[in-house]
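Tokens as discussed.
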């Protein structure tokens, strides 16, 4: 019985160790990563759309020698707006990005976009690419927030006058 338990334990640990042994595996297992956005419905305040995106990487997910680029993008009628990517690295990467340890981690990043007319019906998504040596793999695009509440925006006097004459 003890021998069976030791074998089973070793097998489980072995599977966990190779679960994300390559960038492709990280991309395939992206659904195991938890993503939240605060606020869930974006808001326009003073011409800006600001939010905080929190990502939780589970244990044994992040490859120790991988670099992950995550680009926040607002998609709206008439276009899209991209931020500079957030870059994360595994524990064994010798660089100066945020380290995500192999035992899992939660990271929060602030996103900010200038409001453009048409963004009322937008959504925020994350586009990610993992790199390891000379390989790279794209993650499935992850939608994290819907719409932009514009009730805080001032209504222009010209806009009000146009409605009075009709």
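Sequence:
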């Amino acid at each position: 019985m003890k021998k069976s338990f030791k074998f089973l334990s070793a097998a489980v640990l072995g599977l966990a160790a190779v679960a994300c042994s390559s960038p492709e595996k990280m991309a395939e297992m992206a659904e195991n990563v938890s993503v939240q956005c605060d606020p869930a419905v974006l808001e326009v305040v003073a011409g800006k759309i600001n939010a905080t995106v929190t990502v939780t990487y589970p244990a044994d997910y992040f490859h120790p020698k991988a670099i992950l680029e995550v680009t926040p993008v607002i998609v709206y009628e008439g276009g899209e707006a991209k931020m500079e990517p957030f870059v994360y690295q595994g524990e064994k990467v010798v660089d100066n990005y945020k380290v995500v340890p192999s035992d899992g981690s939660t990271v929060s990043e602030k996103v900010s976009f200038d409001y453009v007319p048409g963004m009322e019906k937008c959504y925020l998504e994350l586009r990610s690419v993992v790199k390891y040596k000379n390989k790279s793999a794209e993650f499935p695009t992850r939608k994290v927030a819907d719409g932009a509440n514009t009730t805080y925006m001032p209504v222009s006097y010209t806009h009000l006058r146009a409605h009075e004459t009709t």
